[in-house]
Design a protein that fits this description.
Elements (H helix, E strand, L loop, with lengths): L1 H5 L14 H10 L5 H19 L4 H41 L2 H4 L2 H12 L3 H10 L3 H11 L5 H53 L7 H51 L9
Length: about 270
């Protein structure tokens, strides 16, 4: 088993346009095989324990039989559910980590070109440049420049509203990570209940004491579904916390950058 595991390699990083949701989702689907690593810690300890008990069996065959045992214990329904959840988690995480980046939200080229237009008193060109850019920073600057004729306070208010809208869009995206983190243990709990009900039905339907092997089917489903649900939920919740803190820091950076670029207009509209 160790020889097989040593051959596993995570796919290399590939960078796509951060502003295109379709390409990000495509990258996530291409890395969906990575989702198998989320359940690997479940298989490895059990396979190692069985190999130690048997002593003479080869690791590859024991690992294969343990994997089959896990699949049979889960059943077709829960295998499909957890595979879909793991693939979705990987796809959403790839999309978030590619779109919620400083270079994507605050393109350095935009800041430099916008500031150069302001230095040259080319305010219309600066506005058109910001409006043509679909990044977080571009949308906020375009909102502020569009309200400058009404004075700097109105421009500042427009920028705050644009920042709130952009932040809400990004928060909606990372909320799917939290959703998967909440659903995974719920499906695990559902599998636990199903397994225990099946075990008790076996007891109730038998006139004599059922064999432990007959009860093990339902009990194994109860335990394994909970275990895999937790292994999916833990990284999802951890990644959601990281993304949330990351997004909060980037929101502050965007606010500071827009304030720096637009500070030269603070006296506009004052009497």
């Amino acid at each position: 088993m160790e020889a097989c595991l040593n051959d596993v390699r995570l796919p290399g990083r590939r960078f796509f346009s951060a502003g295109r949701l379709g390409r990000s989702l495509l990258a996530g689907l291409m890395m969906a095989a990575w989702g198998a690593t989320l359940v690997a810690p479940v298989v490895l300890p059990a396979a190692t324990a069985c190999a130690q008990e048997d002593g003479g069996e080869e690791g590859g065959e024991q690992g294969e039989s343990m994997l089959i045992f896990f699949v049979k214990a889960l059943g077709v329904r829960y295998v499909i559910i957890f595979l879909v959840l793991s693939f979705l988690l990987v796809a959403v995480l790839v999309m978030c980590f590619m779109q919620i980046r400083r270079a994507a939200l605050m393109p350095p080229a935009l800041s430099q070109a916008f500031e150069a237009h302001l230095e040259n008193k080319e305010f219309q060109q600066a506005y058109e440049l910001a409006k043509a850019d679909d990044s977080y920073l571009g949308n906020v600057l375009a909102a502020g420049m569009g309200k400058l004729q009404s004075g700097y306070p109105a421009a500042a208010e427009a920028m705050e509203e644009a920042e709130g809208d952009e932040a809400m869009k990004l928060e909606h995206k990372i909320s799917y990570v939290s959703l998967i983190g909440a659903l995974a243990p719920m499906f695990g709990l559902l599998g636990t209940v199903d397994g225990m009900v099946a075990a008790f039905m076996k007891i109730a339907g038998s006139e004599t004491a059922p064999k432990p092997k007959e009860l093990a089917v339902g009990i194994s489903q109860a335990l394994i579904t909970t275990l895999i649900g937790l292994w999916l939920a833990i990284p999802a919740i951890a990644c959601f916390a990281v993304l949330k803190n990351w997004l909060q820091r980037l929101n502050e950076d965007v606010a500071d950058e827009t304030g720096r670029l637009m500070s030269r207009f603070q006296n506009v509209g004052k009497k």
